[in-house]
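Ticket 4471: requesting a sanity check on a complex prediction with PMV. Repro inputs:
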Amino acid sequence: MSAPHSITARACANIAFIKYWGNRPGDLNLPLNPSISMTLNSCVTTTTVEPIPAGPQEPQAVVGAQHAAPSRARTAQSAADDEVLIGGRVPGEKALARTVNFLDAMRRWAGNSQRLRVISENSFPTGCGIASSASGFAALAAAAAAALGKHPDAAELSRLARLGSGSAARSIMGGFVELLPGDTHQACHAVQLADENSWPELRDVVAILSSEEKTTSSADGHKLAATSELFEGRLRAIPARAQQVRDAIRRRDLSMLGSASEEDALSMHAVMMTSRPPLFYWTERTIRAINAVHALRRRGIEAFFTIDAGPNVHILCLDSGLDAVTSMVRDELAAEFIIAQPGPGIRVEGTR
Ligand code: PMV
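Returned structure tokens:
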């Protein structure tokens, strides 16, 4: 390929109103249900990818080998390896193996065996209830594709990002985004429902109730979904709820959006709690936050919760309700928070 150059991609995380939970068999992350999210402007992953020149060299950051067993990935230091730094550190074995596997998929797709150096930073703390895997794999897909000499369109980038993490497929587009539950790699990609300027008053206040790392990742959790007796019922209920969310986005109707989002989060967590083995992501503080959001609504403030695969609570409100929501989070929950609004899609810059 041409002279080594470095590509930087920026992707925002997203919060789903209709959650993706449960995959089709296989390792393509093909969801069983449609999911709909908002891209979050203030939660950004910035990832730089550059080709590692062939030939003997000092590795700058330790390193993952293609197809290496995780234990080898930590110690391998040959020029045939990728180099990965996330948040200034070499990731742990599992995260490193997942990143290298993803780069292998990108290389197969591009028909290019180039080793890559990856340096990635989040603008938000990891483990704070915002899926860094969504922004992380979206940014990595875009930067790696360009570093491998390819320029896919948004639908193709979304398919590629999905191979890293299902929710990452949605972070390619800005504003309000739906991931279609296609049953093939080709059919399963995200589409934009409305851009980030379509509803600028909408806010997501993320109450950080715990930043401990979760014991079961969502990647493992998806595999348990179908073991819940409630899963079939959830899948039957989603089409009507997803239509309510699409209509709410079109009409900019927070109470329509919020009521569907609360229902969907509770439905997903009910599936999690009744899986075998059960997955319980909530803590006492999660339940306190749910009650506090309901209390705000009784006071006439439009605020609604949604919760991902963790204990932290996202509170959807309008900018007019922001002071009431943030005061509640600070004073009643004694929690820190992040404020986000609809954000842009993927941005890519390159230097030669
Ligand atoms: O993309 P994953 O594998 O991290 O799964 C995302 C799961 C949820 O965040 C709980 C729901 C969603 O649609 O984002």
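Notes from triage: Residues 16, 19-21, 35, 131, 133, 165-167, 218-219, 222, 308-309 surround PMV (CB under 6 Å). Leaving this open until the requester confirms.
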